[in-house]
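Lecture notes, unit on protein representations.

Consider one protein chain, 116 amino acids long.
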Amino acid sequence: QVHLVESGGGLVQAGGSLRLSCAASGRTLSSYIMGWYRQAPGKERESVARVSWSGGSTYYADVVKGRFTISRDNAKNTVYLQMNSLRVEDTAIYYCKAERFGVEYWGQGTQVTVSS
């Protein structure tokens, strides 16, 4: 079992920055693909960014490309999402996911609210 806890969410003005963290316990994350997802009110959960187990390969949704950066520190068993130039439409609950061989673990989410 992998237990994931997100933190770092909050209220920020448009144009501002936040850094989300996802800390894992139970197992080392080094062999897991890690991802950040978000869900806005009334919308489906969507993929924001993913990073390979080594950190050498990343994926970003087009809407966050150039503004968000995903990274991981396997020694700390933690994954990060640096969010810059935040927009009102980035407002959502952000979730962390660990995946390996089709098995997924999700965190409880952290709220990000961007005001205009």
